[in-house]
Amino acid sequence: MTTHRSTPSERFDRNVQRRSAQVLKQRVLEQQREEFEKALAWAAEQDAIERAAALIVSARRRYLLGYGKSLAYASMLATDLSAGLSGVHLVGDGSLRALDVLGDIRQGDLLVAVSMSRYRRETVDVATAYERHGGDLVLITDADDAPLTAVATTSIVIGTESASYASSPTSVVLALHLLATLTIASSKGAGRRLHVRDELAAELGLYAENDDQN
């Protein structure tokens, strides 16, 4: 899969500028429907997500890496994985420095890097160094010839074509949802961890929906 690479301003000029809201909305909806159907077919036929899930489950420590918009995807995946797995850490949001991760790579560690066009240099440099120093790398990207595909242990390549100025998140979110689901389903201690978290959340009163029950 090779994604047409263009900048947000180029996509704005091509797709958005001088179009009525009604026409633009219809175009985006039609394009998203087409992309989602492609993503469903791809997920059903390919085993890349299963391979990545197996690596995540078997890892001792899991680091999720992303910068820019990809940080949002990495953060979402980290949140979903940490609900059922221990040893899940997000890199790139300022709470954990990449230098600290690179300086303490151990056997059984895994880096999951989210790198979408236009491919932030920080992600490429950190993930390349991680692999060079002996760590395993799972790559989530949008083209077969994207940076890091040559060094990744396994890659999930997702289409992000869009009729908007911004790359579409639809297929990315679907793939991340499947990846988290398959990973947690394969983890022996996930059920117990989820139950404990639910009990602690109720004890701490984290959610407003519990107010009516008190």
Automatic annotation (TrEMBL):
Which GO terms of type biological process are on file? Answer: carbohydrate derivative metabolic process
Boundaries of every SIS domain copy: 52-190
Taxonomic superkingdom: Bacteria
Which SUPFAM superfamilies does its entry note? Answer: SIS domain (SSF53697)
Per its UniProt record, what Gene3D superfamilies does this chain match?
Glucose-6-phosphate isomerase like protein, domain 1
Q: Which GO terms describe its molecular function?
A: carbohydrate derivative binding; DNA binding; DNA-binding transcription factor activity
Record's Pfam families?
Answer: SIS
User: What is the protein's given name?
Assistant: SIS domain-containing protein
Lineage of the species this protein comes from:
Bacteria, Bacillati, Actinomycetota, Actinomycetes, Micromonosporales
